[in-house]
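Subject: design request, 280 residues
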């Protein structure tokens, strides 16, 4: 794991272990405090979600975030596949009220040390069914920080969505016998997409992955249902990352300039459509 610009030396060592033509896949995990970012980051490295001496420290302090610095690690995917880099970031809406400092630090590390990402994984809890004001504000801040192009690399990760057999069966049976009360993965994805489209006017069809870190806890590791679903969802995330065009992290001034250009182009397009110039 690396902190800030101290990453440079260690990252160069790990890069030397990869083949010269290999470009490491990078996944940056972002989300509110308590969404399980650090646990998921550990699991993607092949560790237990509550391991001792984890790569990324995990705690259970409610709305107090354990992660106060943007850190990253380069290891084999799920502990046994291709090398990749995962970046863990401080939680938004931390009750310590130091969001501004944490965001400044995060942007500096992403721009100077991480450079780019194949996937920006916005991790939200599966209990977040209405997109709270805090989460809406967090997404607005992300858009302001990363620019409009972030939507092209954004994936919605859903945490705390258990695939234990009894819970998975209950969800499916409810959908079958009481459709009005259906609360399965399809319902969650559809509901969230409608809210995101309404609030942020997103043109992209954002992909969703349901990644329950607890599926990799020792007490669940032999549960075939959880094992298969985690393998399916994590494979989907990996394929999305491999197919993506890397997103470059810019400075704040670069983002402001980029947003200005996009708004100008949109205004010109709207005028063309309004004046019917586009048909000429």
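Subject: RE: design request

Done. Sequence follows.
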């Amino acid at each position: 794991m690396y902190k800030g610009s101290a990453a440079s030396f260690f990252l160069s060592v790990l890069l030397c272990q990869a083949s010269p033509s290999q470009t490491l896949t990078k996944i940056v995990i972002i989300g509110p405090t308590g969404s399980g970012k650090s646990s998921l980051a550990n699991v993607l490295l092949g560790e237990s979600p509550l391991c001792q001496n984890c790569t990324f420290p995990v705690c259970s302090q409610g709305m107090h975030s354990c992660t106060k610095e943007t850190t990253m690690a380069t290891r084999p995917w799920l502990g046994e596949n291709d090398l990749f880099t995962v970046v863990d970031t401080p939680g938004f809406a931390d009750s310590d009220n130091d969001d501004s400092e944490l965001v400044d630090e995060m942007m500096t590390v992403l721009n100077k040390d991480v450079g780019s990402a194949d996937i920006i994984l916005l991790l939200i809890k599966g209990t977040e069914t209405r997109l709270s004001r805090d989460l809406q504000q967090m997404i607005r801040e992300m858009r302001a920080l990363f620019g409009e192009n972030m939507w092209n690399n954004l994936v919605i990760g859903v945490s705390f969505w258990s695939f234990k057999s009894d819970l998975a069966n209950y969800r499916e049976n409810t959908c079958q016998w009481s459709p009005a009360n259906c609360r399965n993965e399809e319902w969650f994805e559809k509901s969230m997409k409608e809210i995101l489209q309404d609030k942020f006017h997103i043109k992209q069809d954002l992909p969703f992955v349901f990644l329950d870190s607890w599926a990799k806890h020792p007490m669940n590791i032999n549960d075939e249902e959880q094992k298969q679903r985690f393998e399916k969802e994590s494979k989907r995330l990996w394929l999305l990352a491999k197919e993506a065009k890397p997103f470059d992290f810019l400075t704040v001034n670069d983002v402001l300039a980029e947003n200005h250009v996009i708004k100008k182009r949109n205004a010109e397009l709207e005028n063309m459509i309004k004046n019917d110039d586009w048909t000429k």
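The helical segments are 7-17, 37-44, 99-114, 133-146, 165-177, 185-200, 224-243, 252-274.
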